[in-house]
Amino acid sequence: MVYLDTDKQTCADLSITESVYDEQPLCSLFLKTETKQGKSLMLEWIMYPLSDWETICKRQKAIDWEFLPDLPLNEEELDFIEYYLGYRDQIRRNNILFTCAGLIDRLVRYDPNRYVICRGVKLVILMLHRLEEWVTGARSDMPKLLKEAACTVRSILHGSELEEVLEQTSDEKARLSIYAIDKYDYLFRSTRLLSVKELLSIIYLLDVCRTAHRVAKEKKLNCTPKMVQAMEFSVEGVVHPFVKNAQRNNWDMFQGNISLFTGSNMAGKSTTLKALTLAVWLAHCGLPVFAESMTCPVYEGIYTSINLPDSLRDGRSHFMAEVLRIKEILIKVGSGKKCLVVLDEMFRGTNAKDAFEASVAVNELLRDFPHCHFLISTHILEYAKAFEHDCSCCFYYMEAEIKEDNFVCPHRLLKGISEARVGYWIVKKLLNMHELEIEKAR
């Protein structure tokens, strides 16, 4: 399996697993599995996106399928099986003498360990029968991922001593002898331990697919991204997953490999960049995305520079942190990997003239990496204007204007370069209001 390359800074910028910047973590959308181990598997999917077209598509089709089977056991039963398999006491080959000795011993004193073994054995047997029922009645039109899982179940159940267990326990009402429990216990916890654990992993896979399918229905995520090997990137009706009543926007890389986003402060540039990047991230996990439709390249890496901290310990300013981060990203894309790079407000830590010149210099460098896509937001209109006729760049802006002395921001993403300059108005408006509040307080 080939994984997408990324780093800690990108995961922090996008709040993948932790709420680093008071944002709800992306993983919280899908961590609603029926089992604890299913939750761990779902988290693994989200933390480690894929760069493998075939595996991504297999996940997508499995999650999309309308006939996903119910889990063979509930969470408590599966947890008990996990506990039982990890229980290291009294693992020994079944022997009639040991069984008789144990029976006599239990007549004299209570053995709490025996409860764990008896219930664990019975639950594993129940799991085997339920999985056998699933693969026997499986539909012929199952997606490939589920077909592979069913094939694994068949090979485990019918290629080992577990097949005998199924035959010998076909009568669910029949009582298991102490000797049979000892025999199956040794089989489950020793001889075929790895096989039983593999069967459990398939149940957790079903749990993840069922959960993603359920979340997609609840959130009305009807979009399964089309993953392509070419550099085709477009999305319709994309929204940030945690913005309520969000404006849906369309975007595509209609020319070149650099997309510049302009617009005034508070217009929504950063949120839009994150919405696009999170859609790409989820697409590479094989999960549904928050959009109406999407065509996405199979990238080999995702890197962002959105919320960079300065460092008092290292004596590093915010500007220096930005420069070093961009250098780090350039080294990554210079390796030849197909990458998505997101740069939000480059060089905000320095003066306007330096920021303009530095941004232009970086843009010149990025044109030399046609195998990568770069999404860059800026409030320096002169920087965008400098590349207005450059075929390596396309342009979008977030709509915003002052109407009747009010800041109007519909959060619509439009093609072109913004001409809006509302920063001074906002400062003046807020400062005047502050002065009025001071006067009232007096």
From TrEMBL:
Presence of keyword DNA-binding: yes
GO molecular function, one term: ATP binding
GO BP terms in the entry: mismatch repair
InterPro entries attached to this UniProt entry: DNA_mismatch_repair_MutS_C (IPR000432), DNA_mismatch_repair_MutS_sf (IPR036187), MutS (IPR045076), P-loop_NTPase (IPR027417)
Domain DNA mismatch repair proteins mutS family: from-to ranges: 256-442
Entry superkingdom: Bacteria
Annotated keywords: ATP-binding, DNA-binding, Nucleotide-binding
Keyword Heme: no
Signal peptide: none
Pfam families referenced in this protein's UniProt entry, alphabetically: MutS_V (PF00488)
Protein's name according to its UniProt entry: DNA mismatch repair protein MutS
Organism: Bacteroides faecis
UniProt gene name: mutS_3
